[in-house]
Structure formats: C-alpha cells, structure tokens
Amino acid sequence: MIRANRRELLAGSALAALGASASTAAVAGRAGAPAATAPDLFVGTGGHGHTFPGATLPFGMVQLSPDTNNFGWDACSGYHQSDRSIMGFSHTHLSGTGIGDMLDVLVVPTRGPLKLVPGTTQAPDAGYRQRYSDEHAEPGYYRVRLESGVLAELTATERTGLHRYTFLKGAGHVLIDFAHCKQESEHELIRIEDASLALDADGMLTGSRQVFRWAEGRRIHFAMQLSRRPDRVEFYGDDDRPAAAGARSVRGHRLKVALFFDDAGAAPLLIRTGLSGVDVAGARAALAEAPDWQFDRYATAARRRWAGELDAVKVSGGTPAQRRIMASALYHTFIGPTLFSDRDGRYMGLDQQVHRLPAGDSAYSAYSLWDTYRALHPLMTLVRPDMARRFVHDLIRQTQQSPYGPPTWPLQSFETGCMNGWHAVVVLAEAHAKGIAADYAAAWPNMKRRAFDPTYKDNLATLGRDHYMKLGYIPADKIRESVSRTQEYAYDDHAMALLAEAIGERDDAARLRQRSRNWRNVIDPSIGFARPRFADGTWWTPYDPVQLGHMPEPRWRDYTEANGWQATFLNQHDVYGMIAHMGGDAAYERKIDSLFEAPSTLPANAPPDIAGLVGQYAHGNEPDQHAPYLYAYVGAPWKTQAMVRRLCTEMYKDDPDGVIGNDDCGQMSAWFILSALGFYPVDPTTGVYVFGSPLFDTAELRVGAGRTLRVRATGNAPDRPYVQSVRWNGRPWTKNWIAHHDLIQGGELEFVMGARPSRFGTAKEDRPPSNAG
Questions:
Q1: Before 732, cis peptide (omega within 30)?
Q2: Please, which residues have CB within 8 angstroms of residue 1's CB and are 6 or more apart in sequence?
Q3: What are the start-end ranges of the E strands in 213-299?
Q4: Distance between CA atoms of 712 and 709, rounded to whole angstroms?
Q5: With 276 labelled, which of 57, 109, 619, 727 sits at a CA distance of 20 to 30 A?
Q6: How many whole angstroms separate alpha carbon 17 and alpha carbon 346?
Q7: Quick check: 413 and 398 in contact, CB under 8 A?
C-alpha cells in the first residue's frame, strides 16, 4: 500500500470512530474550526525515532506490535520501517527509547515447515521471518498481510492483547517463541532465567520468565487462550530440543511451543493474551477485560477510546502535514508511562515486593524521567491532569519503595539507573506548584537520604554524590559525565528544596537552596562555557567546547549526551543567576546567538543522540531543548519566536523519519505540541510557560473539569512568526509568559502575529519569573 492510500485509510477510520462526537461536528460544521486529524502511527518508525506502529490503549500495559528486529540501536522498539520482514507479534514494546527491552511473548502465525529460529533481516528465509505487504495502523488497531498468506490483525485492552489470524485454506501453525529477544554480543547481554511454559487441561497456555536486559531481572507472566484447540502441540526447551512426546509443559531458558492446525483456514484463529508483572493468576485475571471472541468489538472500543483521547487537542491552520504531525505527536505522548498493576490492584514494587494499591489507583512503568520531566509531564498537567495526578501518586510510592530513593528510569519494578540524577523530584515539584494534591511528605524520608546521606545506596545515575557534597562539584578526574552530573544534581536539589519548603522542612530547604547553586562551579565565566574541573580545583586545558570531554576514551565523557556547547545551557532553574554569572543580558544574548551560529561539527566519538543540529544546538536530544526560549529572559523574545518556528517546521516531518532523534517516551513529541501551541515550560517547577510562536491559526485544548483553552494566532502565516501583542480573555497581556493556574481556568489566549519583530515582552517586568531563590 502506498503512503497516500494509508493516509486515506487513517483519516477515514479515525472519523468513523469519532462518530457523532464533537470533533466530527467540527469537521462538518464551522469552517476553519479546530478539528480532529488522524495520526500517522508510522511517524518515528524510521530514522532514529524508535517508535512502534502496533495496537495499544492510552497508557496501557499491552503494546501488541510487530517485531522486525530485536538487536541493535534502531531495534529499541522492536520495529524499524527499513527492515522489511516481520518475526512475529509480541505484547510489550518501548516507545522512542535509546535502549531496548521488552518484546514479551512473540506469536508467529505462518504456514509450511516449522522453523524455530527467526533468521535475520538480511536472510529472512533462514528462519521464521516473513516479508509483508498491505501494512496498516491506526490507534488501537494494526493489520498486515504476511508472505505466507496470513492476514494478521491486532487490537488490545489495557492488559490483554487480541489477535485475529486469517489463514489460507489448508494447514498452518502458530509458534510462541518465549526467547526471541535473547541476543548476546560484546555490547549487549540478554539473559533469560526461570522460564516456564505450560498447557492446562482447559487449553490455556501460561508462562513466566525473568529477563536480564536493561531492567535486570524483571518478570513477566502471561495467560493465552485460543478460539479453537490445536490438533497438535509441541514444546521445545533449551537449544530448541523437543520435549518428551505428549509433554504439556517445559522449563528452562529458551522455550518455545508450536500449535498446529490441520485446517487453519477453516475460520479465523483468535488469540487472547493477558499479562501480569506479578504472577500467572494476575495474567489469567487480565483476560476478563476481553471475555469473548468479538475481535471487532474490542477493536472498535480501542478506536473510540483513542478518539476521545486525541480530541484533547484540536488545531486548524498550518499545513495538512503539520496537522498530522500534531496528531501523531499527541498519540505518542499518550502511550506512556505504561500501566503496571493487575486488575486486583497488585503490582511489583521497586523493592521487589508485591504491593496492593488503594481502590481506583494504578501503578505505572517506563518513566523516562531524564527526558520527560521537561515537556511530557508538563503537557499531562495541562491536558490530562487526571493522569498527571496518577503519575504523582505512583512516583511517591516508587520513591518510598526504591532502594535508590527518587526514581531515575524505572522499568517494570527495576530501577535501570539510566541517565543522571533523580528527576522524579522535578515531576513532583512541578505537580505541587500546579496544585496537584498528594502526600508529598510521604516521599521526603527517602528524598532526604538521597540529598544528604553520602552512604545512601548509589547506582549509575547517582555516582559522585560524595564529591558533590564535599566540593560543590564532581571532579572530572574521578567520575565520568561530571559536568552534566553537577548541573543535574543541582537542579534536583532545587526541586527538593521546593518540596521541603512545601512540607515545612525549612532547614533542609535552605541547605538545598544553597546547594542548588552548585551549577556555578562547572561554568567557567572566564570563557563562558561549562568546563570539566578536576579534584584540585583546576580546569581542563586546552578547552574545546565541541569535544565531549578531556579523555580520549569514548566511554569517559564529561557531559551526558552532549558537549561543552550544549551543556553550557543546561541550567533551567536559575537562569537569571546564569545571566549574571556570564556578564549580563547583552553578553548572555550573544552567547545564545553563538550556540545557534557555531559550525555544526561534532567529534568522531559523539553519540548518535546528538542530532538535529542548528549550529551547536542539538534538537534531537534533551539537554538544551529549552535553549531557544532563553532569549525571553534577556529581553529578546523575537529571537525565541523565530527559532521556535524554525524548529517546528524543520525538525519534524510527516513520514517514518519524522522525529529528528529518539522520541524518548514522548518527550520529542511533547516539545512539538507545546511549542506549536505557542508556549513552553523552561523550568517546569515554576508553574509558568514562556511564549514562543504558535504554529497553528487556532487550537482548542481540554484542560480538565469541562474547561476549554482556546489559542488563536491572528494574522499567522509561515512568514509571520513574530508576536506583536497578546490578549488573554480579551484583555491586553504584556507579559511574555503565562501561569499554569491561568491556563487551566480555560478561556482564550490570542496572539497577534507579524512579519517583523516587535517590542512585545521585552521590558524587564514582563520577562519570565524564576523561583531559584
């Protein structure tokens, strides 16, 4: 199917799912009114976006999607548009990450001789891989025709994946490969332990396994039912050894089971698979979400659920491609964090103990907090405050239960320790600033240990805290990524100070406030750059901001997925302190200019994450994504407006290679959504948004409690990116920012746009606030 046909299908099915909803009324009613647009689920599945096109529900536990590959950087989600062959369909996937995991319970429907190995993308015929055609995806539903002739259709409930396979006439079989993610190389070691498969007397297939990959030791359990019994069943154990004749179970590491049907084409074969992170009983209970075999009913329910979610933001104006980009971005921000509790409220905590939630609450997983605290969580507080509240309650529980304190990158009951800092505290501080009620004090004991106890357990994310506490910075000759760690720990200190103040811990708050200024200790004002510093207090010389650090060894870098240019602008919470440190408004404005004007060269050892360069600004990664908005703090907001408009139009496309870097669990998408609406949270903990340049003529946002926020850009056009004036609910608004508290009341925010810069928002009293203290 060519992409034009795919888009027609997406648009048609999305509008059909909307039925008589308000969005359809908008399409058929007021000319130019904001309307729902169908997302393209293949945006981000090429390039390095690392997204997947399969079926899931918003924030659901099941992500039932095709696996085209399971090894290498561009296989992090299990799918890449360029692979052109499918191994099968597994039930869990990560969206937009830079490390791979999951891919649980692979189902391979096919015909012909049984093959037990998948083969490779270069040699698919060597295994059970199949080429494919007529691929189609829409929210909640996926369809593809495999070269064996099998038509595969997928949909999902929150905890159950549903398959419908239509075979050609004659025999066929379904292979369940419980070990297809097992790969070993110099760079990646994946180990499976304590795996089991069993076929019960009632025909239900159940299984459990422990996987040591990114989340080292996570457990997954499943229960699978088929709409008809197979004519023959064969189990295979380690090294693909067949089990004894008549065996109904197998244990080991590399487990598989083949289900044979003599007349597979007699009727469509349907499969239901429930998942649990606790036990098989929880997986069995998940099947109650889909108690019958009405596949179309569940697919329709999934479409309707998504239609309601995607109705949260509607836009008009821009180009058709930009409206699809917006819808696709919104879809990707609603995939996760992902559900990780059973129907009865049980879940596996970060302490590796089973807990039970209060009625009506949920536990979640796949928090890419180093990325998502910046824009995804702020977006949730605006358009999904109910989910933001759930995430806050969950992160408080995880902070209480984790041996490492506030989470960094928790994945299915394990702290991966990926990236730096403990940025769950930023999400909590932001939520408190925005009025989300929660028991923040319950998390404080573990926060305080992380903040002040140098003996508290460390992982990769928290290395060097002892140096940080003694010296006020992390020495580059002691700990890698020292410059970024110092800055990020200082930001987390700032967030914890706000939380300590909120719960009455004033002495601790004062200590943290003071320590949150430690970013100064790795910003050398004599050269105006973030610079590695050694334990004796000396700086790295000769300094080169393009380099990743002072050591030639690639793994020893002084910055996290950045170089000296990008790390220089990492400070979010004390922008005015940074401006003063760098010599004042004019000097800092010139410094921002130089970031965007520098030659776009990178050293040979630069990671692929540093992508989407404009000068040395790297939009494809997170450390400096707020940098375009820093002009607002020095009275040059028109430069923010021009750059944000450029990034919205150049860094996002309506095709598989449509995300300039990894989507990072929705962060890249969330940046686009907020920036295209006309505002962005430079420091989420302030509870304010800095104005940029709205991309669309009009937008409507549901902001909770039945309220609607309308954003209008009068006189908008591709060559008119500059804000001339702003009105809020009909009244002149001179500030170059607006508070979250105002926006969630609903109303109309109107920008008047022009072709030339204006003086709007340049006065000192109209610049964005800071709560650095």
A1: no
A2: 9, 133, 134, 135, 136
A3: 216-226, 232-236, 249-252, 256-261, 269-276
A4: 10
A5: 109
A6: 33
A7: no
Tell me which residue of 679, 683, 641 sits closest to 769, measured CA to CA: 683
8 Å CB contact between 258 and 175: yes
User: Over the chain, what is the mean pLDDT?
Assistant: 94
Whether 773 has a pLDDT exceeding 90, the answer reads no
Q: What is the DSSP letter of 184?
A: B
Handedness of CA 519, 524, 530, 534 (dihedral sign): negative
Residue type, 529: F
Give kind and range of the element (H or E) at residue 580. Answer: helix 575-581
For residue 677, give the nearest of 692, 665, 666, 688 by alpha carbon.
692
| Cis status, amide bond into 637, omega within 30 of 0 | no
Q: E strands within 111-255?
A: 130-138, 141-146, 151-156, 160-166, 172-177, 191-199, 205-212, 216-226, 232-236, 249-252
CA distance 119 to 308: 40
- How far is the C-alpha of 736 from the C-alpha of 69, rounded, in Å? 47
- Interatomic CA distance for residues 399 and 442, integer angstroms: 9
Would you state the structure tokens that stand for residue 413, as one six-digit string? 């009951």
Helix 3-18 with 295-310: angle, nearest 10 deg: 90
- Closest C-alpha to 735, from 770, 704, 689: 689
d(CA 469, CA 449): 13
In sequence order, the β-bridge partners of residue 223 are 206, 274
Rounded-to-integer distance, Cα 235 and Cα 241, Å: 9
Rounded Cα–Cα distance for residues 332 and 321 (Å)? 16
Helix axes of 482-502 and 506-515: crossing angle, nearest 10 degrees: 160
Q: Which residues, other chains included, contact 275 with Cβ-Cβ below 8 Å and sequence gap of 6+? A: 61, 62, 91, 92, 104, 105, 159, 160, 161, 220, 221, 222, 283, 286
At position 716, the amino acid (one-letter code) is: N
610's CB contacts (< 8 A; 6+ apart) are 561, 562, 563, 566, 602, 618, 620, 621
3-state secondary structure of 454: coil
Q: Judging by beta carbons within 10 Å of its beta carbon (0-12, 13-18, 19+), is residue 331 exposed, middle or buried? A: buried
Phi and psi dihedrals of 177, rounded to 5?
A: -100, 115
Question: Do residues 704 and 729 lie in contact, with contact meaning Cβ atoms separated by under 8 Å?
Answer: no
List helix spans (H) across 439-533: 440-452, 465-471, 482-502, 506-515
Cα–Cα distance measured from residue 284 to residue 208, given in angstroms and rounded to the nearest whole number: 12
Instruction: Report pLDDT digits (tens) over 503-552.
Output: 999 999 999 999 999 999 999 999 999 999 999 999 999 999 999 999 87
Contacts of residue 431, defined as CB under 8 A and 6 or more positions apart, other chains included, come to: 377, 381, 388, 389, 392, 438
Query: CA-to-CA distance for 76 and 97, rounded, in angstroms?
Result: 6
User: In whole angstroms, what is the distance from residue 433 CA to residue 612 CA?
Assistant: 32
Q: What is the DSSP letter of 492?
A: H
pLDDT surpassing 70 at residue 629? yes
In whole angstroms, give the CA distance from residue 512 to residue 510: 5
User: What's the pLDDT band for 34 if we cut at 50, 70, 90?
Assistant: confident
Residue that is written with structure tokens 């109650």 in the block: 288
DSSP state of 679: E
Burial 186-225 (b: 16+ CB within 10 A, else e): eeeebebeebbbbbeeeebbbbbbebebbbbebbbbbbbb
Q: How far apart are the C-alpha atoms of 333 and 328, rounded to whole Å?
A: 9
Centre a 10 Å sphere on the Cβ of residue 254 and count the other Cβ atoms it contains.
Answer: 18
* pLDDT at residue 183 greater than cutoff 90: no
Residue at token pair 């297939």: 205
User: 698 forms bridges with which residues in the sheet?
Assistant: 316, 712
Buried/exposed 85-94: b ≥16 CB within 10 Å, e otherwise: bbbbbbbbbb
